[in-house]
Amino acid sequence: MAELARDDQELLRQLSKGNEPAFTALYERYQGPIYRFALHMSGNNATAEEATQEVFMQLINNPWGYDAGKGTVAGYLFGIARNITRRAVQDSRCELALEEEDLALDEFATAGELDVLGELTNGELLAALRSAILCLPQQYREAVVLCDLEEFSYQQAGELLGCSPGTVASRLHRGRAILKKKLSCQKKLSRCVK
Amino acid sequence: MREIDPIREPSEALLSSALHRLVKAGKRNAPPELGANLLEKFRHRHRRRRQVRLAVVGALAACLLALAGIAGMRHNVRTVHQQNPAPAAEQTPAVDATTETNAVSDLQPRQRQARPSSNTAGETQAANDEGFVPLPSYDPAVASGDLQMVRVEVTGSELRMLGARVVGDVSDRPVIADFITDRDGTPYAVRLVQ
Lengths: 194, 194
Prior knowledge:
The complex is a heterodimer. Chain A is mainly α. Chain A contains ten helices and no strands.
């Protein structure tokens, strides 16, 4: 990780001098994770593309904006993507149907309630999951997207989000609990429809 | 990330499995055209940056050359001034400097140094000590071959009669002087010896 961070800094230094291979290397390394992060956070392809473009435009126009003392290059890039995504979804995001207070009473869905996942087709399952993830509160959604979907470690996710690994673990736990609750609600809903 | 035990935590295992399927289905990257577009913007920006830098360097080089040129010109002017002292200094002697130069050049090189610079008695005396001072009877047309030098003892009043500027009360005092005369005895220049 430290090696990668140093490499990123070197690439960024080269990029600021106009080195095209350095830009290509940095783009190839981060365009996928940033695009998917923005896509999972917003649920919108256009927003994901816009976020990816803005992140790299920031690198092109102001490569000196990164401060090595404040974190890694990856954290800097994800920070930009987070801000852009947050702004984009602020007006359009669906409100959390399930309040956290409700979760305190019935935090965990049972395995039986989640059996619905086996009953759904692959397409239905993915749609249900995406929908449930999009309705998570921002901080929990970030933890689920980075740790469960992008498969970052708590340490890496903590660096990207600017918090400790323990906080990431806590947010992830909470986010997954909300996800299960939402999916079990969805199961009840689908049975009612049937 | 912590390992999930499917027996103890069946709901966690089901959720993880569902999320994993979402990851497999959603391994998407940013559109290739976005990368190409960003690369083009990167090239454009750095092309422009290089042009601006070239222009700045060119302008600085031009400024430096201009400054060097001005400094060189000033140096040349100063050198010329040092080689040819101010004409004003030459116009101040008691005797006309042009005439003196012409007269003395025909006599001996040493006499070129005689350059009285003021009308005071002391300075005139100093000038006389250094060389010949032309007299009003000096004729520049006379060839140098026709000149001769004679050393005579005269009084201050006699010198004054010959046209030499004698300052102070030396009318009756005898002085030894060298005279440059024509063949017929016309004095052209005088130099006080004692």
